[in-house]
Specification:
alpha/beta, five-stranded parallel β-sheet
């Protein structure tokens, strides 16, 4: 059975690149352009992991994660958050966001497949 990853980013190009990377590794992918679209996809369907940008219009990554952590079916799901601010204190985001792992956006493509494999197989 294929594991499902929800990719959340306001950039269509980023969604396509990450989706291609994960599909190549055998994962099923779903897509949301912001946190609100992502939450709408968490309607009882099987989602094994979320990969999300921090900064997005409508609803950003932090607000989305807070809401997911309140949902019974998804509260313990691993969430990979990526930040595009090179000066961001990644350890601060890990402690305060509720994300499982935080990456700098520049490193996400290289680390994504191996991280997903470690988290959900």
């Amino acid at each position: 059975m294929s594991r499902t990853v929800l990719i959340v980013d306001d950039s269509d190009l980023v969604r396509r690149i990450l989706g291609f990377t994960l599909k190549k590794e055998g994962y099923t992918t779903l897509f949301g352009a912001d946190g609100k679209e992502a939450l709408a996809l968490l309607d009882g369907r099987d989602v094994d992991l979320i990969v999300s940008d921090l900064n997005m219009p409508v609803m950003g990554g932090l607000e989305m994660i807070r809401e997911i952590r309140e949902m019974n079916n998804y509260r313990f799901m691993p969430i990979v958050l990526f930040v595009s601010d090179a000066g961001a204190d990644v350890s601060h985001f890990i402690r305060t966001s509720g994300a499982t792992i935080v990456f700098d956006k520049d490193a996400i493509k290289e680390k994504l497949a191996s991280t997903v494999k470690k988290l959900i197989g």
